[in-house]
Specification:
Helices cover 13% and strands 35% of the residues. The model has no long low-confidence stretch (mean pLDDT 95). The longest helix has 11 residues. The chain is globular, with a radius of gyration of 16 Å. Strands 1, 2, 3, 4, 5, 6, 7, 10 and 11 form a nine-stranded mixed sheet that branches. The protein is mostly beta strands.
């Protein structure tokens, strides 16, 4: 299973979706607590809508891309912001800053892709911190799937994190909740 992260869905960088990959050890499941790594400096959280690939996809045109994913999930991507900046300046791979163990929280529950049209709301300690709407994304989900299928074969179970409009500094003691419609997809603590 691949974890594919879109990085420019809420910026003006590039003419097409830009992405990086993570190993499956980056998954944080079951609403387990996220433990802030000591050695990586400031960590930021980015709430996201996640697509789960439901059929093999290679060189799929945008008009058929909807057939390649059946459900959506909620996710939060954790990034070591300062470390990422240093790695970028040095021209080094980003793995240490973005791909560390448990750096991608993922909901167990799934919703139909139509449910995502409602958008997601991300709460920190019960206060709304971000809204994620498909309409605000620079690249529509079908466009992302089509583009990625040109670059690599997408397999059943691959996860596409569609990007985030917000970065929230991670603090021990916080509670994170991600809701789509009336369904709480994520509810976990930061330690």
């Amino acid at each position: 299973m691949k974890l594919i992260n879109i990085i420019n869905n809420y910026t003006r960088e590039g003419e097409a979706p830009r992405f990086y990959l993570k190993a499956d050890t980056a998954l944080l499941r079951n609403n387990d607590a996220f433990y802030i790594p000591d050695r990586l400096g400031v960590i930021v959280a980015e709430p996201q809508i996640v697509l789960r690939i439901s059929r093999l996809a290679k060189c799929v045109s945008e008009r058929f891309a909807t057939r390649c994913y059946d459900t959506i999930m909620g996710g939060v991507v954790f990034t070591a912001e300062e470390r990422l900046g240093a790695l970028r300046r040095e021209g080094m791979p980003w793995d240490e800053a973005v791909g560390f163990d448990h750096s991608s929280a993922l909901s167990l529950d799934t919703l139909s892709r139509d449910a995502a049209l409602q958008g997601a709301i991300f709460y920190v300690n019960g206060q709304e911190s971000a809204r994620i709407n498909f309409a605000d994304m620079r690249f529509a989900a079908d466009s992302v799937v089509s583009h990625l299928s040109e670059a690599m074969t997408l397999r059943i179970g691959d996860l596409i994190f569609l990007g985030s409009p917000a970065k929230i500094k991670v603090k021990a003691g916080d509670n994170y909740r991600l809701v789509i419609g009336d369904k709480v997809l994520l509810n976990f603590d930061i330690k």
